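A.,

Following up on our hallway conversation. Structure tokens first:
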């Protein structure tokens, strides 16, 4: 289980996260939803120490992650697929995947996981030798997720995987999220697409200006009139 307690982050004078608490149980899909600037991406970056925390603790299966180097956090199985895809544009699809496995030395396992991601994303196999910068937005998102999977995550954190994608590609990405979870990987999902995120999530948290204001099972939040009014554009 990932356990976040009293987590605070400041950007200068801005209190971006204001003492939030949440948990991600093993084997589940948990989502953080909220508007731009709510603190969703900051939360994921704080977990892997890409931004410094002001206070609070982060534990993964009882192990304290707070203060660890990002590379050491990745080695524990906590992996982030970042917002904006962040693929290496001048490297091929295959080279991007190899970099995802940089911390591993089990060659047989790496080869097996490479084949696994090609089953999940057959389009990437077709484009193995193509430079990542020439891929479409949807293909780059597939590559970002596949590269993260090459780290052999126990928990995969996904930051806005549907951002800027066509509806058909969005559906495919969320189908892949379900498949990854069914295969045994815990998922922490950050999304502005509240409807799609809550439909796939076992549990959800609503972030607003650095605070968690609502939480509950995904389907319960999806039916909540406050959530529907704020994030699905429906009148109360």
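Then the amino acids I'd put at each of the 236 positions:
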């Amino acid at each position: 289980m990932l356990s976040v307690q009293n987590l605070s982050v400041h950007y200068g004078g801005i209190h971006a996260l204001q003492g939030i608490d949440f948990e991600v149980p093993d084997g589940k899909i948990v989502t953080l939803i909220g508007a731009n600037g709510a603190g969703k991406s900051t939360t994921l970056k704080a977990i892997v120490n890409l931004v410094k925390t002001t206070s609070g603790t982060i534990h993964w299966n009882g192990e304290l992650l707070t203060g660890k180097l990002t590379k050491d956090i990745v080695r524990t199985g906590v992996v982030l697929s970042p917002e904006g895809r962040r693929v290496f544009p001048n490297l091929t699809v295959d080279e991007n995947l190899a970099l995802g496995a940089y911390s591993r030395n089990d060659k047989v396992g790496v080869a097996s996981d490479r084949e696994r991601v090609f089953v999940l994303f057959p389009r990437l196999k077709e484009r193995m030798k193509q430079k990542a910068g020439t891929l479409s937005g949807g293909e780059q998102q597939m590559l970002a997720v596949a590269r993260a999977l090459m780290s052999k995550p126990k928990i995969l954190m996904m930051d806005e995987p549907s951002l800027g994608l066509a509806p058909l590609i969005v559906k495919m990405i969320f189908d892949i999220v379900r498949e990854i979870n069914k295969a045994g990987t815990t998922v922490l999902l950050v999304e502005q697409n509240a409807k799609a995120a809550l439909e796939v999530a076992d549990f959800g948290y609503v972030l607003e200006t650095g605070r968690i204001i609502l939480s509950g099972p995904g389907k319960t939040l999806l039916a909540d009139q406050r959530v529907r009014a704020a994030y699905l554009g429906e009148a109360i």
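The first helix runs from residue 40 to 47. Curious whether your intuition agrees with the design.

B.
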